[in-house]
Specification:
- The structure holds 2 protein chains of 2 kinds.
- Chain A is an alpha+beta fold.
- Chain A has 27 helices and 21 strands.
- In chain A, the strands form 3 sheets. Chain A has a 6-stranded mixed barrel with strand order 2-3-8-5-7-6. A 6-stranded mixed β-barrel of chain A has the order 13-14-19-16-18-17. In chain A, strands 12-20-11-21 form a 4-stranded antiparallel beta sheet.
- In chain A, a hairpin with a 2-residue loop joins strand 17 and strand 18.
- In chain A, helix 2 runs antiparallel to helix 23.
- The two termini of chain A are 26 Å apart.
- About 1% of the residues of chain A have low confidence.
- Chain B is of the alpha/beta class.
- Chain B has a single domain, classed as 3-Layer(aba) Sandwich (Rossmann fold).
- Chain B is built from 8 helices and 10 strands.
- Chain B has a 6-stranded mixed beta sheet, with helices on both faces.
- The longest helix of chain B has 18 residues.
- The chains are: A alpha+beta, B alpha/beta.
- The complex binds adenosine-5'-triphosphate (ATP) and magnesium ion.
- Adenosine-5'-triphosphate binds next to strand 2 and helix 2 of chain B.
Chain lengths: 829, 226
């Protein structure tokens, strides 16, 4: 035992380069698995933090009676409770604002917008706190201790009161620059309990608190269980179900395991493990093949099959002891330092292209360490190594002593060789490759697999085009002017589509104004939208604020719709005759529990007119280009006889040379109407690019690492092939093989692998790449539309393979040359 | 000048030392040797006396520690690796003590290898002649690991004379052969040397062979003792 262990150690030292290569392969595998998992944990934590960033309450209760609050605060299920009372409406021109009172009844709830940067929350009757920008907006200096005078109406009714307040604190300011219209901002300032009490005592104020609460068991319960708990708490205090709303997004993030992330991590890890098994196996396999003679000698000296097995096993184990911890460490540190950087960089791109800063609530520290995961990774790699060793160990066990003594370094089963009349350098190359046929095949297979994988994924990634993503937003032309509308905003009904159409913003004269801009070639209305509501109970309508928009398709759209057809069938005339409609989103179709044949008695809201219209769902198709979830035929649409123009989007084709000028003019036009939003192709493209790079670079990084592991295999094969042939190469040189010829011979051997690998990746890689693309397109991954041959990636692969292989050849050759010719000839191995 | 042109291979204070200090081994120590064109020289000496080392340096396979080797009036110690491999291909046929065949090539390919490396035409009838004489004619497609030691030795000899080099250097060419075959092999070497005017340098422990030579040089502790 001890002897075997020592022998394993000395063998590892003797085959230094092989030990190093196995070590690197194992290390990289561990690192890759660890890094992928750690990034996954970071991602989960980021989502959690982002969910936490706004606020951590579970539900809002709009209390109806004064008695409900004390009961609620003592309720056994309530973990924390905060109330916000809307005290008065601020009167200041068109400004939207209110004076509120905020009270943490039971600690544990926070609001990101209620954090003080300075001072304290109001305590005295005349104290007030708010955002610095609020005070600026009403013309006061935002300093603690400063004075402001405000007019307001208590409970939003009655006489206007005017009072002077002292600023007691300042809240974290929010970025309002991205909000277009002043009337969209709802300002909030906070006053003291004392003020409320004094008005209440005077009979002028009636408290109407809203309770924000958390229930016990966020860590243990599922979404539904928490929802049930909230509902039962509400019914315990006699609150109507209408008056509660859950913080759905927050609860969803906190309670539902992110199965998507887990699934992706599991799939990638599996690929990595399979692949590494193959590579490590192939390194050991090649090792055993080249060690046959030595193994045979050991057997001749009396080593048992088990001892030989153990010898190999120890060799693997000793390497693991060093490689795995190192891999774990690097695999953890890499995402630890890189992940925040990458996320921030991507966020910066998103910000530049005008998207909101969605990482605002992200603290610097992401929690991404998990001991169980670390142990699982280590175990997975150990198992990988063991599995890779199984076959080589069995092979080594089968080596017979007699075989070993005759054995000339490498294996061939044949006794003779047809050969050639004359011998050229190429003959030597071929002779060597065919002598090691098994080794050649194993190496080629691993190399081929890694490059097929690379080309395959590259084909899909290369087909992700920013243009395709941008076209989701701007279906044609270069600009889109879109009408921002709400479905069913009760507080600001003027923003609802049925009200907006009555304004006729997209009238002929507006379109003419657009056409007359220098550089605009054409202006086109996109198919319009109309709001619908229904009296039947449907999750679909509940989620859409009880108003869902409908649109239409034409006969020309049918081929595209059929291509993406999931179920049902599309027959234009029959659909027109029976008011049948297509649902355009497969995912939500299932979520809402819809089924083909479902009938919806609808009311369509054509401005102030209501049109009753009953539809039947008869097809589910998922093309990219519909905003509306439900579409009817153009003929059905025309038959509605709409009074108002339902256009919500306008496309503009412009002359490229005048793009910038047109954009500027359009920006000015759009700025004049708060309901308009301008989408321009260049911005959409850069958003698209940012989105793609978010997927592209991490995936490429993983691919490159996989390729590196695969490359270990080539390096191993080449080094083994040269080192074990050191003597043979020496003899060749003694017989007059020049250095140049030697390099040519070695490169030709390497080239065989390279060209073989390239051949495999060029054929299989692109075939699989295309199939993979078709699949990804079906799954609607990144708006894939058309297949783009990954030419650049292929060229890159060629260059890297050729370069790498040449570098290895030269390096090996240099190393060999260090020994004098005669030393090589006399060497035993 | 005339006398000089007669000398094909010459050493000047040729030394090869291994190790340093207490471990210093003077494998070849200050050897001055001149070999004439067409001469048959035998080298004898005890095991470990430095015969192989000397022969390697004569064959441009090893670099001397000091001193020089002159081939055809040129100092090959100063040649670049490229010239050296050319010399090995064209001028020298080397027969190793331990055969040193290329395992991936069959017997025929091993024999024609030096010609192939020099992109030379193969004189098929000549090679076939050699193969027949050496008794390898039914083994030409065999791989070396299926040959006996003696067969491998004969293959190595065929390889050395195939390119018709001007000098044949042989390190115990008959060490693994029975007396009869050994004699035949030596006869072949001599005949070939005579026919093509080749110079023959043979290391041997065999008294008989040493007797056949034009001249015998005795090596002891790296030095020539006449
Ligand atoms: N690489 C080396 N390092 C150290 N010493 C060496 C080396 N090669 C040879 N020697 C020593 O040089 C001496 C001469 O060796 P060489 O092989 O020339 O002997 P030889 O006369 O050919 O013997 P044999 O008749 O047994 O073949 C020996 O003592 C040997 O140990
Ligand atoms: Mg010797």
């Amino acid at each position: 035992m001890n002897m075997i262990f020592r022998m394993a150690l000395s063998k590892l030292r003797y085959h230094k380069s092989r030990t190093l290569l196995t070590g690197i392969a194992i290390m990289l595998t561990t690192m890759l698995l660890m890094a992928i998992g750690t990034s996954g944990f970071a991602m989960l934590d980021m989502n959690r933090q982002l969910a936490l960033a706004q606020s951590n309450y579970h539900a809002v209760f709009r209390l109806e009676e004064p008695g409900q609050l004390p009961v609620l605060s003592k309720h056994i299920q309530v973990e924390s409770l905060t109330t916000i009372e809307s005290f008065a409406q601020i009167i200041n021109g068109k400004m939207n604002g209110s004076l509120n009172y905020y009270e943490p009844v039971k600690d544990g709830i926070y609001f990101s917008n209620l954090e003080l940067t300075e001072g304290h929350f109001p305590e005295k009757e005349d104290e007030i706190c708010s955002l610095p920008s609020f005070f600026e907006r009403i013309g006061a200096e935002p300093v603690v201790g400063g004075k402001v005078t405000l007019s307001f109406r208590v409970n939003g009714k009655g006489e206007i009161q005017t009072r002077e307040f002292t600023i007691s604190g300042l809240l974290i300011d929010r970025d309002v620059s991205t909000v277009i219209s002043d009337s969209r901002i709802v300002w909030g300032a906070y006053v003291s309990k004392a003020l409320l009490t004094s008005y209440a005592e005077a009979g002028l104020y009636e408290a109407d608190p809203t309770a924000y609460l958390r229930v016990y068991g966020e860590d243990m319960l599922s979404y539904d269980e928490i929802e049930d708990k909230i509902n039962s708490t509400a019914s315990d205090i006699g609150l109507d179900e209408e008056q509660i709303s859950c913080n759905k997004e927050y609860l969803f993030t906190m309670t539902t395991p992110d199965t998507d992330t887990f699934a992706i991590i599991a799939v990638i890890s599996l690929v990595v493990i399979l692949f590494s098994t193959l590579v490590i196996y192939s390194i050991y396999y090649v090792g055993v093949i080249t060690d046959v003679q030595e193994i045979g000698k050991l057997k001749a000296l009396g080593a048992s099959r088990r001892q030989i097995g153990r010898l190999l096993f120890f060799q693997g184990g000793i390497v693991c002891v060093f490689a795995i911890p190192l891999g774990l460490l690097i695999g953890y540190l890499l995402p630890y330092f890189l992940f925040p950087q990458v996320i921030r960089a991507l966020n910066a791109t998103a910000l530049e292209s005008g998207q909101l800063d969605h990482l605002k609530g992200l603290s610097n520290q992401l929690h991404m360490f998990s001991l169980p995961f670390l142990l699982i990774t280590a175990a997975a790699v150990l198992i990988t190594v063991c599995v890779s060793l199984l076959k080589p160990i069995r092979m080594a066990g089968k080596v017979s002593p007699a075989e070993a003594i005759r054995y000339q370094e490498n294996t061939t089963d044949c006794k003779s060789r047809k050969g050639h009349h004359t011998v050229k350098v190429s003959t030597l190359t071929w002779a060597n490759l065919s002598r090691n046929r098994r080794r050649t095949v194993v190496t080629m297979f691993t190399m081929g697999l890694s490059s097929v994988l690379f080309i395959c994924v590259a084909a899909v990634l290369n087909s992700c085009r920013a243009e395709d993503l941008a076209r989701r937003s701007i279906q044609e032309g270069e600009f889109r002017i879109s009408l921002d509308y709400s479905h069913h905003d009760k507080e600001y009904p003027e923003n609802n589509l049925d009200m907006l159409v009555q304004q006729d913003y997209f009238n002929e004269s507006f379109l003419e104004q657009l056409s007359s801009i220098d550089g605009v070639e054409s202006v086109k209305r996109a198919p319009g939208n109309i709001l619908s509501s229904t009296d039947i109970e449907s999750a679909l309508y509940e989620d859409a604020d009880n108003r869902l928009s409908l649109s239409y398709f034409t006969r020309e759209d049918i081929p595209a719709l059929n291509e993406e057809l999931v179920s049902g069938d599309i027959d234009y005339d029959r659909m027109t005759a029976n008011n049948e409609v297509i649902y355009t989103h497969a995912y939500s179709f299932d979520i809402y529990g819809l089924a083909l044949g479902d009938v919806f008695p609808l009311t369509l809201h054509d401005g102030d007119r209501e049109i009753p219209f009953t539809v039947t769902l008869t097809a589910l198709s998922q093309p990219e280009n519909y905003d509306a979830l439900v579409i009817m035929t153009k003929d059905s649409w025309d038959n509605l006889g709409l009074t108002y123009d339902p256009t919500t989007d306008i496309y503009l084709h412009v002359n490229n040379a005048q793009y910038d000028n047109v954009k500027k003019t359009l920006q000015d036009i759009v700025a004049k109407n708060e309901h308009f939003t301008l989408y321009s192709l260049d911005e959409e493209m850069s958003i698209g690019r940012a989105g793609i790079s978010l997927t592209k670079y991490p995936v490429y990084l993983i691919l490159v690492l996989i390729a590196v592991i695969g490359f270990m295999n080539l390096i191993n094969t080449m080094i083994t092939s040269v080192i074990t042939r050191k003597r043979e190469l020496g003899i060749l040189q003694a017989l007059g093989l020049s250095n140049r010829q030697l390099v040519r011979m070695l490169s030709a051997e390497g080239m065989f692998f390279t060209v073989g690998t390239l051949f495999i990746s060029a054929t299989l890689g692109h075939v699989f790449g295309y199939l993979f693309f078709v699949y990804a397109k079906k799954m609607h991954f990144m708006s894939l539309t058309s297949y783009h041959f990954p030419l650049l990636e292929t060229i890159l692969l060629v260059l890297v393979l050729l370069g790498g292989q040449t570098a290895i050849t030269l390096y090996i050759n240099k190393k060999v040359e260090k020994e004098s010719l005669i030393e090589r000839i006399r060497s035993q191995e | 000048m005339n006398e000089h042109s007669n000398i094909i291979l010459k050493t000047e204070n040729l030394c090869k030392y291994y190790g340093a200090g207490d471990n210093l081994v003077k494998a070849v120590d200050c050897v001055n040797l001149a070999i004439k064109q067409g001469e048959f020289l035998s080298i004898v000496g005890k095991s470990g006396s430095g015969k192989s080392t000397l022969l390697h340096m004569l064959g441009a396979l090893d670099n001397p520690t000091s001193g020089s080797v002159w081939l055809d009036g040129e100092n090959i110690s100063s040649f670049k690796e490229n010239r050296l491999s050319q010399i090995r291909r064209r001028k020298i046929g080397f027969i190793f003590q331990s055969y040193n065949l290329i395992p991936s090539l069959n017997v025929w390919e091993n024999i024609v290898l030096p010609l192939g490396l020099d992109n030379k035409e193969i004189d098929t009838s000549f090679i076939q002649d050699i193969v027949k004489t050496l008794g390898l004619d039914n083994k030409i497609k065999n791989l070396p690991n299926t040959l006996s030691g003696g067969q491998q030795q004969r293959c190595a000899i065929a390889r050395a004379i195939a390119a018709k080099p001007s000098i044949i250097l042989a390190d115990e060419p008959t060490g693994n052969l029975d007396t009869k075959t050994g004699d035949e092999v030596m006869a072949l070497l001599k005949a070939s040397a005579k026919k093509y005017g080749q110079t023959l340098v043979v290391i041997t422990h065999n008294e008989e062979i040493a007797q056949m030579a034009d001249r015998t040089v005795m090596i002891a502790d790296g030095k020539v003792v006449e």
